Structure formats: structure tokens, C-alpha cells
Amino acid sequence: MKTYKKLLSSVLWLAAALIIWEAAAYILRDVICDPLAAKKVPGLLEIGASFLQNSVELMRQAGVTMSYAAAGFALGASVGIILGLAMSISGLCEKMILPYLLASQMIPIIGLAPIILGLFKDIAVSRVVIAAYITFFPVSVNFLSGLKASEENLKSMMRVYAADKCRLYSKLLVPNALPYLFSGLKISAPMAVTAAVLVDTLSSKDGIGYVIVFTLYGGGTTGQFWPAVIIAALLGLLSFLIISAAEYILIPWKRQKEEVRK
Q: Under a CB-based contact definition with an 8 Å cutoff, are residues 237 and 69 in contact?
């Protein structure tokens, strides 16, 4: 019942947003008669027609961005998992690494992207590195929190049965930390897409971010702008849904606990 209510609420919010958008387009176009109305807030039918007209090219560019985002996400998630494990195993390691991890997040991504591009001199590598950079911190911190979240009496029981550190982690700590890990992954996945789109806008010749900037400032087909923006948003949503589906499949005990609580 709650699921249906949430779905209905989401549909109503979406319908309201679409109505407001169409009303704004009508006011700009037919009431105010703004000559730039088609660029500022085009009608939904115009956006849909533009998408259909340029769908092949837009999907190709979206695939380019998604591939770099996925590569960076995989790299960043791997680094984050390794760092989380290292900090969990060694308190000294945590004290040494965690402050620098926190400090690294103080650098705004909009300022870091040109620096990374200048260092690597390769837009493809830069897209992967920036996506990895934006990914590893939420993954490492959430995974570390999960590894620390196991109840002390369960750890003591494992030690009573002479479980070594390897068994302690593989049988108790890591399985218990997986929901926390997936929380970090669900945060990081859309951020990796955002990072890839951002770097697309710098000096690349492909990617959905390139389409957005080129159509807005470079003299491209302006009708592609809003479809490209919507596709970029949908890529972030898609990445979140993929991680959520993986969580649903790989952590059945979390789902069972939630059903018991209900």
C-alpha cells in the first residue's frame, strides 16, 4: 500500500511539474511574446520533437558520457573500498588517512577539473579521473561506517570460536557493512555522471556535456539543448537505479529485515 502511495505521489509531482513547465512556455511564447521563448522554455511537444529528430546522435553522445562515468565510478569505488578496509583494519591508518580524505573534498570540482585536465593533457583520462575522485570518498566513508557498525557481542562470539581476522571480516563485518557500502555507491553513482558531464564541457569533442555547451554557445542546433539536459539528468537517475537494483539482488537479508519491520 505504501509503495502505491509513493508511486502515486511521484506521478502527481511529475504531472504538476510538466503542467507548470508548459504554462511557463505558453506565457513566454503567447502572452509575453518573448522572441527567445523557444530557447528559454520551449514547449514539451517541441522538446519531444527535437529529441526524436536527434535521438540517434543524442543517444550516442549519452553512451560516451556514461562509459567514462562508469569507468571512473568503478575505479573510484574500488579505491574507496580498499581505503575503507585499510582504515578499519588499522586505527593508525584511519588517523593518518581520514583527515586527508576530508581535506580532499574541500576542493570544488569545478576548480579541480581544469587542473586534472592540465596534468593529464587527455580529456578521456581526465573524465575517468574526475569521476573516480568524486566517487571514492562517499564509498570509503560509508563502508568504514558499516565495518564499524557490527555489534560488539557478535565480534566477541566470533573471537570465542577462534575466528581469525580474515574470517571475522568475511563472515561478519563485510556482510554487515554491505548496506552501508551500497548507500555510498548510490550517492556516488549520480555524482560520477555529473562529473563526467562537467568534464565534457571543458574541451572534449563528444559526450552529452559537449552537446549542451555546443548547442548553447557554439552555434549548434539549439533544439538539442533541452533534450540533452534532460538526458543528462536521466543518466544520473539511471545510474542510481542500477545500483539500487544491484543492492536489491545482492543483499536479500536487508529486504527481509525491512519486510519483518513492516
A: no
What is the tens place of the pLDDT at every residue in 186-242? Answer: 999 999 999 999 888 876 688 898 888 888 775 555 568 888 889 999 999 999 999
Contacts of 166 (CB under 8 A, 6+ apart): none
Distance CA 184, CA 170 (A): 20
Q: Which of 239, 201, 209 is nearest to 74 (CA)?
A: 239
Query: Residues 185, 243: contact at Cβ < 8 Å?
Result: yes
Indicate the length of the chain as a whole number.
262
Q: Please give the angle made by the CA atoms of 83, 84 and 89, to the nearest 5 degrees.
A: 95
Q: Quote the pTM value.
A: 0.85
Nearest-CA neighbor of 189 among 127, 233, 236, 245? 236
Q: Is 82 helix (H, G, I), strand (E, B) or coil?
A: helix
Comparing C-alpha atoms, which of 67, 26, 55 is closest to residue 230?
Answer: 55
**Cα–Cα separations (whole angstroms), residue 111 to 33, 107, 124, 199, 217:** 39, 7, 18, 11, 21
3-class secondary-structure state, position 191: helix
Q: Give the domains, in start order, of the chain with CATH numbers.
A: 1-41 (no CATH), 46-261 (1.10.3720.10)
Q: How many CA atoms lie within 13 A of 45 on its CB side?
A: 2
